[in-house]
Amino acid sequence: MMRHFFFRLCTLCLFACQIASVDAAETRIVKSSNVEIPEILNQYRLPEEISFDAMTSDEVKEIQIQTKKVDCLAWAFLINQGGRLPVMATFANGNGSKHFIGAQIGVAKINNVFRRFEGRGSSYEYFNTKIKEKHAAKFQFADFRPRTFADATKFLSASMYNTVPLNLISEDVQIRNRSTSCTFADRKCRVYVGEFKASWLLDNLREQTIEHPAIKLEFEDSCPATSAGMFENFNSKLSPLHEKLFRIRHGL
Fold first, then answer.
1. N or C, where is the chain less crowded by C-beta within 10 Å?
2. CA gap 66, 140 in Å, rounded
């Protein structure tokens, strides 16, 4: 009887170990995909394909209409063999304020549907006399429900945190052009470029990198030297008092 008990116990332990050792599902980046992304994801239930897709001319026009009175906005373009394709649009924390310190919130077209994202950037060199034009950046997708631009830029909802987030991270975003005409707005933009790696944040300690060539993105930021700047958000978000105390110029 005791021998039978230990045999069953060992069998259960072996089965449990096999389950624990199952690798997380793998995702690949493709040029275009219509694969549906479930709202709730876990490490064993991830989409097989992810694509960053170009917005149509009608979608671009609709966002232009919605952001006509917005002070600060930014667009991101995917750089590949097909050219320079608009794939992301955002403005600071959903309120369009050039004086609000917070994350960028907007939409990116993933698997041919708009998805909400949050973005943060940070300058590497804070107090050096010669500040390097080098920045880190992170964009996180934690809500895969199809969204319009207007819906995506509203306040956060608790349901966003019930799934595995997708991160786009770059450790080296460079300034390509300090001031030039914006593509989709009648104003001046600062142009940045960077290569981003994609990964699933399985939990607080583990990431699953999506193996693929780095995603090259170009950004046009209409408020680079304000608190709404996408990347320069340490030096650019100092108050006038802090600027005077630390002798750091406003923006890079």
1. N
2. 23
